[in-house]
Amino acid sequence: MENSLQGKIQLLKWNKDVTLKNVDEFRVTILKLIEGDSAGLILELTDVSYLNSAGLGVIADAVLTAGRMGKELVIAGVQSTVGEIFEIVHFSTLMKIFADLNDAYDYLNGVRNE
């Protein structure tokens, strides 16, 4: 896991599958970043090939929490298996999902500057 701040946008690059063993770490990490000073958060999932239902719940809760705080959480770099799961549960109706990290940055910078 890596995180970095570019301007007012926080990037969390999660580099392992989300399972029962680490879902609490996943939750705590995302919520800490949302509660920080960033205007938005990008959750990059390029290296994630498996995400359990609890992980889906963490992401959904994080999106809602960010929204209540006037921030936005977006997803970038979704692999095919995780992308299929996102399609099944209609995550694209809840949040923006980008294939490319740069597109996610461009989107959040545009939202911030409007």
- State the helix count: 4
The secondary-structure class comes to alpha/beta
What is the number of beta strands?
A: 5
Helix proportion of residues, in percent? 40-55%
In CATH, what is the homologous superfamily?
A: STAS domain
How many domain modules?
Answer: 1
* Uncertain residue segments: none
Instruction: Give me the CATH fold name.
Output: Transcription Regulator spoIIAA
Shape: globular
Task: Write down the overall mean pLDDT.
Answer: 91
| Beta-strand proportion | 15-25%
Summarize the main sheet. Answer: 5 strands, mixed
Report the top-level CATH class. Answer: Alpha Beta
Question: Largest sheet, order of strands side by side?
Answer: 1-2-3-4-5
Describe the structure.
With 114 residues, this protein is of the alpha/beta class. It has a single domain (2-99), classed as Transcription Regulator spoIIAA. The chain has 4 helices and 5 strands. It has helices spanning 23-34, 53-68, 80-88, 101-113; strands spanning 2-6, 9-13, 40-44, 72-76, 97-98. The protein has a 5-stranded mixed sheet, sandwiched between helices. Helix 1 runs parallel beside helix 2.
Helix and strand layout, with pairings?
Layout lengths: L1 E5 L2 E5 L9 H12 L5 E5 L8 H16 L3 E5 L3 H9 L8 E2 L2 H13 L1
Parallel strand pairs: 2-3, 3-4, 4-5
Antiparallel strand pairs: 1-2
Helix pairs in contact: 1-2
Summary?
With 114 residues, the protein is an alpha/beta fold. It has helices at residues 23-34, 53-68, 80-88, 101-113; strands at 2-6, 9-13, 40-44, 72-76, 97-98.
